[in-house]
Specification:
disordered N terminus; Alpha-D-Glucose-1,6-Bisphosphate, Chain A, domain 4
Length: 178
């Protein structure tokens, strides 16, 4: 009886680890050169000026800011077998990425984390939804893509690349000299 339970537990644990994938996350740390309350005010001004951020939560503690960001995605990857289908398939993946932004000011550091990039196709009915971006180098097996695997992988890699480009742009706009 103990052996059967042990086998069952091991099987369940191995199944969970098979599907657990690390989400794509970007973090930037800035050493504060000003007092935390002054740096906090500058970060708030910067945060408010960003048109790509929504649902901003600013607690009274002056140590943490949370919000949601939006990155527009237009698929440039052509489907090689048909130019007519290419436009249809591209349109099915066009949309945006909704992501979490978290800014912590503590211990003379400002830590900005952008995470949980979730693909939201424009067409809510007939679409290819790639879900949450992970660190995987190819499209995760749990994501169903009814087109050739090569095309789906190319779209997956393009999505990750474009998100990384936008994140780098966001990081470049951070206030200097905090």
């Amino acid at each position: 009886m103990i052996n059967k339970n042990l086998v069952l537990v091991l099987f369940i644990l191995s199944s969970l680890s098979t599907y657990s994938q690390d989400n794509l996350t970007f973090t930037k740390s800035i050493t504060l050169t000003k007092k935390a309350n002054k740096a906090y005010k500058e970060v708030i001004i910067w945060f408010d000026g960003q048109t790509r951020f929504r649902n901003i939560t600013i607690p009274e503690s002056e140590t943490n800011i949370k919000g949601t960001g939006i990155i527009t995605y237009r698929n440039p990857i052509k489907y090689p077998e048909s130019s007519a289908l290419s436009k249809v398939y591209q349109a099915k993946t066009n949309g945006k990425f909704i992501y979490d932004i978290n800014i912590d000011l503590k211990d003379e550091l400002c830590i900005i984390t952008l995470s949980n990039f979730i693909h939201n196709p424009d067409d809510k009915i007939d679409n290819f939804n790639f879900g949450i971006l992970t660190l995987e180098d190819s499209i995760p097996t749990k994501i169903f893509c009814e087109v050739t695997p090569e095309w789906c992988n190319n779209v997956w890699l393009d999505m990750k690349s474009r998100v990384e480009q936008q994140v780098n742009t966001i990081f470049l706009t951070l206030p200097q000299g905090l």
